[in-house]
């Protein structure tokens, strides 16, 4: 993998469905200051990103923080850290896969009026997307990176389309006052939004697949965080410019509501954004499952798991 493929791997793991729904939770806490909250959350994540970038350049191996712990604190602490990572990645894949099934269900309801009801002991849509991601990963690092890059482009395109359409209904007066709930509201919004940045370290799991890991891994981690922050801020500015912040409370499909209420267009925008959410969730499953395999590989290479 080169710099761009490593960057899209981190973007794929980070830029999930959160941005499609998180404004409904965060805007009521901060008001228009949510734009500042995104920047504050991004700066907070930057401290962690700089640490990952430094260690990824010094210890360019697969395994992310497991490998860094092994090199600095020894085998026992690394073993504990590795199992924590396996649990984190495993639970994340399961949770995101369940969410994928819900978004596919919404898309089918909007387009063809069908609903996937899952009454059995196994969540079949969730199992299906995990198996699809596994099949993509079995093709090899280069092939799965290409699939991830294409899907990252699609979901970024969906968000850019949202911004382009929402800006046609932009009203500067929606940002006055900028801090209606004070600095405390702005910081509360940043705390809620911070979870939208988790995943930027995914490139650090690809140390053995990088062409030039010491140069490209640190750059990919920082670049992905910067690009994600810029995209988040653009989406927040477009959404708040198109709809007053008081209308965000109690909203789940926030971006769809913004376009339907402020711009119109019937079911067209909800369908496009639901498709974007499906693709976004798919890339998260792919990137997180990839990270899981690299953690297991690194631990097995050190003899800590079979």
Provide the descriptors you would attach to this structure in a database record.
306 residues, mainly alpha, 72% helix
Short description:
The protein is 72% helix and 0% strand. It contains 12 helices and no strands. Helix 8 packs parallel to helix 10 (213-242) and helix 11 runs antiparallel to helix 12 (268-301).
Provide the fold topology.
Elements: H1 3-14, H2 18-21, H3 23-30, H4 34-58, H5 65-73, H6 75-111, H7 124-138, H8 141-166, H9 182-193, H10 213-242, H11 254-262, H12 268-301
Helix pairs in contact: 1-8, 1-10, 1-12, 3-9, 4-9, 4-10, 5-6, 6-7, 6-12, 7-12, 8-10, 8-12, 11-12
Average per-residue pLDDT, rounded, comes to 88
Residues in β-strands, percent: under 5%
**SS summary, helix count:** 12
Compressed to H and E, one letter per element, the order equals: HHHHHHHHHHHH
Backbone CA Rg:
20 Å
Q: What is the helix fraction of residues, given as a range?
A: over 70%
* Coarse morphology: globular
How far apart are the termini? Answer: 27 Å
User: Which structural class fits the helix and strand makeup?
Assistant: mainly alpha
* Biggest pleated-sheet summary: none
Number of strands: 0
Low-confidence stretches: none
Task: Describe the structure in your own words.
It contains 12 helices and no strands. It is mainly α. Helix 8 packs parallel to helix 10. The longest helix has 37 residues. It is globular, with a radius of gyration of 20 Å.
């Amino acid at each position: 993998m080169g710099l761009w493929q490593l960057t899209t791997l981190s973007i794929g793991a980070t830029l999930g469905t959160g941005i499609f729904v998180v404004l409904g939770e965060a805007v009521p806490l901060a008001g228009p200051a949510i734009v500042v909250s995104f920047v504050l959350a991004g700066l907070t994540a930057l401290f962690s990103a700089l640490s990952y970038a430094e260690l990824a350049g010094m210890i360019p191996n697969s395994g992310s923080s497991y490998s860094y712990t092994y090199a600095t604190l020894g085998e026992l602490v690394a073993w504990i850290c590795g199992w924590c990572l396996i649990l984190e990645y495993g639970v994340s894949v399961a949770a995101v896969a369940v969410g994928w099934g819900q978004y596919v269900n919404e898309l089918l309801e909007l387009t063809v009026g069908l609903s996937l009801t899952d009454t059995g002991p196994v969540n079949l849509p969730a199992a299906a997307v995990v198996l699809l991601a596994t099949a993509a990963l079995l093709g090899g690092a280069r092939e799965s990176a290409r699939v991830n890059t294409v899907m990252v482009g699609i979901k970024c395109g969906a968000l850019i389309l949202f911004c382009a359409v929402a800006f046609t209904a932009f009203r500067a007066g929606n940002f006055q006052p900028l801090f209606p709930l004070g600095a405390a509201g702005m910081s509360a919004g940043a705390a809620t939004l911070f979870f939208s940045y988790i995943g930027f370290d995914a490139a650090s799991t690809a140390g053995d697949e990088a062409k030039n890991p010491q140069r490209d891994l640190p750059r990919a981690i920082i670049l992905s965080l910067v690009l994600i922050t810029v995209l988040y801020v653009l989406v927040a500015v477009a959404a708040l410019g198109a709809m007053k912040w008081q209308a965000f409370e109690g909203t789940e499909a926030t971006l769809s509501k913004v376009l339907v209420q402020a711009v119109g267009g019937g079911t067209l925008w909800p369908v496009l954004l639901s498709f974007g959410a499906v693709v976004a969730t798919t890339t998260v499953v792919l990137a997180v499952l990839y990270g899981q395999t690299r953690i297991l590989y690194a631990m097995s290479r050190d003899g800590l798991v079979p």
